[in-house]
Structure formats: structure tokens, C-alpha cells
Write a structure and sequence with these properties.
Elements lengths: L5 H18 L3 H16 L9 E3 L11 H9 L3 E9 L2 E6 L7 E2 L5 E2 L14 E2 L10
Helix pairs in contact: 2-3
């Protein structure tokens, strides 16, 4: 049985393995996955009638949420993106023009500080990346 001290070590090892798996996914498979993710997400009740959704800007080896973002925009959903404002601290900003965000901290596209902030209470749903999941 794992001791509490073993858990961070195991999590770190699992993250390293999953990052390697994610990096090995080819561009075509990644595009197909982004389309499948968008299709499944749009079928969720949380997106039915959503007014505003927070999405993320993908790192090069993450699933690209731009397919989902475009579909949501076509439904009239307002899109927000996070902006890094400090260590482990984000601000949420509306992104009315999909071409507006530019590379920010860590090279991830994000809105500028002058862009209107979005309040969490205004969001209908949040789309966040994940690396590995279990059944719980």
C-alpha cells in the first residue's frame, strides 16, 4: 500500500509518462481528437444554451480547443480566456475577436491586460485541459 509520501513521486512519474504519450500523438490524430472533443462537448447539457464559456489556449502538444471555440462562437456564445497575472494566478478576459490573443507568459496565447475582464459568475461552463484521469 502506498504511503502518503509515495503519492507525489508516483504522480510526478505518471505525469512524465503521460506527457511522453501526449507528445507522441501526430498532428493528424491531434486534429481528429480536437474535432471529436468538440463534438462530444457540444452534446453536453452544460453547453446547451450557454451564454459564456471559458476556454484555454493550448500548448503545442495539447488538444486544441479552437474547433470547440469556433462552434461555440457560431452559436453566439461569448468566449473568455485566462491571462497569467502572477505565480499560480489568472485573470479571465473576454475575447470577442479570435485573432486577438497574442503569445504571453510561457508562449501561450492570452488576452492583453487592457481587454475587459470576465467575472466567474458570468460563465456558463469552463473547458480546461487535463493530462490523465481515473474513473473517479
Amino acid at each position: 500500500m502506498d504511503t502518503p509520501a509515495d503519492i507525489p513521486t508516483e504522480k510526478r512519474a505518471l505525469r512524465q509518462r503521460m506527457r511522453a504519450v501526449r507528445r507522441a500523438i501526430g498532428a493528424a490524430e491531434r486534429r481528429d481528437a480536437a474535432e471529436a472533443i468538440a463534438e462530444r462537448a457540444l452534446a453536453l447539457p452544460e453547453f446547451d444554451g450557454a451564454a459564456a464559456v471559458l476556454v484555454y489556449a493550448a500548448l503545442p502538444d495539447e488538444a486544441d480547443p479552437s474547433v470547440l471555440e469556433a462552434a461555440l462562437r457560431s452559436r453566439g456564445v461569448r468566449i473568455a480566456l485566462p491571462r497569467v497575472i502572477g505565480p499560480r494566478t489568472l485573470a479571465l478576459h473576454w475575447v470577442d475577436d479570435p485573432a486577438m490573443p497574442e503569445p504571453g507568459v510561457y508562449g501561450i496565447r492570452e488576452p492583453g491586460a487592457a481587454v475587459a475582464e470576465a467575472a466567474r459568475a458570468e460563465l456558463s461552463a469552463v473547458v480546461a485541459p487535463g493530462l490523465a484521469f481515473d474513473m473517479q
